[in-house]
Every structure is written in C-alpha cells, then in structure tokens.
Amino acid sequence: MIRKLRKLKPALFAAALTGLLAVTAYPAGVRAETAPTPPPTPETVCIQCHSSLPDRLGAPVALWKQSIHAENGISCNSCHGGDPKNAADAMNRSRGFLGAPKEENIPAFCGRCHVGVMKDYLASAHGKMLGKGGPHCVTCHSNHKVLKASLDLINEKTCTQCHTFERAAAIKAAMQQTEGYIVQIDRRIGALTAVGVDTETMGKALFAQRNRFHTLFHDQDVNRVKSESTQINAELGKIDKQLKGIEDQRAGRKVTGAIAVAVALVLAVLFHLLRKTYD
C-alpha cells in the first residue's frame, strides 16, 4: 500500500498517507495503553524454605502463589511477621513474628490491613457468632489462596456449610447488577485516562461507591442490601452520564477529524489533476 502511495505527487502522497495512518493507527475498540506491570513477587526466606518442604509445610506456598495477595506483592511476613531476609530470625518473636492466629483472633489478624472490612464483619450476624461456630474470614476467603473479593464468594457450596442458601442467593442477586455496573464504568474511566482525559473526579466518585458497595458483602439484611444497591446504582448512573458526555464529544471529534482528512485527500487529488491538466 505504501509503495503505491509513493508513486503519487508529494502533496498527494502526504495527504493519502495521513488518511491511511488515521484509519489504521488505532482500530475501533482498541485501547492505546499497555497493561500495567504487576509488582514483582517478593522472594522471601519463608518462600525459599517452605517451597522445598513436603505436605502441609510446603502447601501454603503453592496456594499463596494463586492468591490476590501474591498478585499484589503481599508475602508471608506481611501477615505472619518475622524477618523475611534472615532464615535464622524468620520466626523470631523479637522480630515481630506472629505465627498463625487462633480462630477467635482471625478477624483482628486480617483487620490490621482490612480495617473497614473487619468493622463490617463484626457488626454483621456472622461477626456476632465469632467463637460460637460462626464463619470468619478464612471460612469464605481461605487463608493462603486468598481470592479477590467478588460475588463469586457468595455461593451455595460455602454458604450451606452453616445454613440454607436462600438468603445469601437473594443478597447476591440484589448486588449482581451493581457489580457489573462498577466494572463497566471502571473500564471506561481507564480507557479515557489512557488517552489523556482528566478523569480524577469521576475516579474518586467511583472509588467511593465501590467502597460503599463492598460494605454490603458482610451484611445479611436482605432489605438493606436491596435498598443500598438501588442507591448505589443511582450514583453510578450519574458517573455513567458524565462518561457518555465525554465519549460522545470524543466520537464527534473523531468524525470531524475523519472528514477533514477526507477533504484534504480530495483537495490533494484535485490539485494534482489540475497541475496535470496545465502541464
């Protein structure tokens, strides 16, 4: 294609090449940014040692590697304490080693990082049953293969360990639309940010609504979950409207740009033909 264009007059070649690049540079639906590089997994002495151990002593490492903690660079010492660089002091209490918590201490153990989540859990019906056979963080989230918080954690297999699934199913159903809406808006904000649009205000608004949404994960009051989900959806709708305005404006600019390129190309062709006629 480029070879054919080079046979044209310079002005015509430049206009045609500009039009070609405008069409091929970024196909519709393709984002120009590259995916962010995840943080490197910290290779601590804990991992080095336990990776080579059999059965229950080595299993936590394999599970941890599949977790959201590993994905975000959170290693063994982040939870269990100790010295991650010195094998001799890795489990030294004077170096902050905590070990594994007892069941009744698990929420406080995890709550050192997840303060808001711990508060929501302790206020819930589940939290009020802590130490009395009720579920805690590990029951739903696991201990080493910690999964990203999502509605997939509300499932029949997990919930029926303690009770029937009806109430949990109703809560999950009320939240599913909201979760999808949050994911969709987050993706659109990311796409606009990548091309230089100022999305800070919308990003903060989404962050607030996402946090509000996450507080519902530990709520067992079906009516409250439904009411809160409706209100969150209304706030997300405001962000959606702002995004649509920006997206429509950008789409209009693209159309205008395409028309300008087409006009320039036509004018270049006409100019070439006129010169050829007078020559």
Percent of residues in beta strands: under 5%
Total helical elements: 13
Helix and strand element order: HHHHHHHHHHHHH
Number of DSSP-assigned strands: 0
Residues in helices, as a percent range: 55-70%
Low-confidence stretches: 1-35
Structural class: mainly alpha
Write down the Rg.
Answer: 28 Å
How far from one another are the termini?
27 Å
Q: Output mean pLDDT.
A: 84
The major sheet is characterized as: none
Q: In one word, what is the shape?
A: extended
Keywords:
mainly alpha; 13 helices; 61% helix; extended; disordered N terminus
Describe the fold and architecture:
This protein has 279 residues and is mostly helical. The protein has a domain at 1-30 and 152-279. It has helices at 2-6, 10-24, 45-50, 55-64, 68-71, 76-80, 106-111, 115-123, 137-141, 156-159, 166-194, 200-214, 222-278. Helix 2 runs antiparallel to helix 13 (222-278).
Q: Which helices and strands, and how do they pair?
A:
Layout: H1 2-6, H2 10-24, H3 45-50, H4 55-64, H5 68-71, H6 76-80, H7 106-111, H8 115-123, H9 137-141, H10 156-159, H11 166-194, H12 200-214, H13 222-278
Provide a brief overview of the structure.
This protein is mainly α.
